[in-house]
Amino acid sequence: MPIYTYENLNKDQHCTYCLGGFDVMQKLSDKKLTHCTYCGYPVKKIIRSVNLQGSITGSSQSTLSQKNIEKQGFTQYRKVGKGKYEKSAGKGPDTIDAD
Ligand SMILES: [Zn+2]
Questions:
Q1: Are 45 and 75 within one domain?
Q2: Fewer CB within 10 Å of terminal CB in the chain, N or C?
């Protein structure tokens, strides 16, 4: 069953349920909602694009700063060419040649 998102666009007439939008699972044959089922104020069906990347809000990139890497005793390399890596943080050889 598709999930429809409704939003109350009226800043003054809403309840906590419809404020900011809500999702409703409806059959295709179901009539679309025109009013909030709780407060009865008008709501509007909105098209929400599914953004899978938006759901990944991990902070692993920000916590692995270069200073942290050195503190933890890790070494970070960045790829500079085919099979070649250059040290960007930490201890170890300045370059690695993987070939
Ligand atoms: Zn409401």
A1: no
A2: C
